[in-house]
User: What shape does this take?
Amino acid sequence: MVRNISALLCTLTLVAVAHAESAAAPIPIKVVVVSMFEIGKPTGDAPGEYQFWVERQKLDHIYPFPLGEYDLRMNDQGLLGICTGGGTSNATASIMALGLDPRFDLSKAYWVIAGIAGGDPHDVSLGTAAWARHVVDGDLLYEIDAREIPAKWPYGLMPLGAKQPNGKSTGWTVDTIHFPLNAKLAEWAYAVTKDHPVADSPGIAAFRKRYAGYPNAQRPPFVTLGDNLSASTYWHGDKLNQWANDWMHLQAGNDSNFMMADMEDSGTLTALRRLSRIQRIDLNRVLVLRTASNYSMQPKGKAASWSTTAAYPEDGRPALEAAYQVGNQVVQKLINGWPVYRDKLPAQP
Assistant: This one.
């Protein structure tokens, strides 16, 4: 009897605690930093995209997050961090779970998606950071095997509902291929960070020398405006790099410019778009920053098969540092200017 009463009291206590937590006012969030992968633990070992934010911004308040890949972490300044897990499906699920989490008020939050990517050597060098005005999905398409591509086609990829590469869709398609971002906000972030000295290093300096004939690829790292192609397929090579540039223009218009290839952003944007429909988040407050850890195609004289699996110079550490260093410039600007930026976007007159 005593044991049963004790168990009942314990259950009632847990129910009361859970009810109190759910009834508490949600925590207002100023900025959400979205990272995509971590090598091991969020602290104390080899860093992925999450660890620098956790350690350097003292994201010491831990919120269990069973619907995600890692626990959520927050500091006293209103910065919330999430690591979604790699690939579009993980990103979609994790961001949707966060967006519906009743513990947080995300209605005024800015989202800074900051991670590494493959960079187009026509436009960027290793360690370069690019703020996007467009995110385009690179998985939602028709594909035929390379051995069966018609001789006049540049590649075997074409839009859903089209008859040939770069053709117009004349049949069915989906509406989660192109995600236009708030261009004025991206341009504001670029203006804040364009003069930030992105650190160079011996490893990336030596590797970029391979890219003779690509002036931007041989520059020290810099900050720019450039757009993202998001695909869970880790594509690579000269032919597919041409496809990526063509696909970006086809889906986002001629003012777009493919610079960074990643594996998550279309999933993150799909979730955020859905959440904006019920006013859980403000889609105008989303920023996407990607930094080049590797090139998306091979240098002259090398095969695509070599380049696909070539080790990232210095294990991608310069790009991880750039994602944090450049992204944090904007994060701190938003937090320090919160009395204004809570209700007025930085890019508004």
The radius of gyration is 22 Å. The first helix runs from residue 2 to 23. The first strand starts at residue 27 and ends at 28. The mean pLDDT is 93.
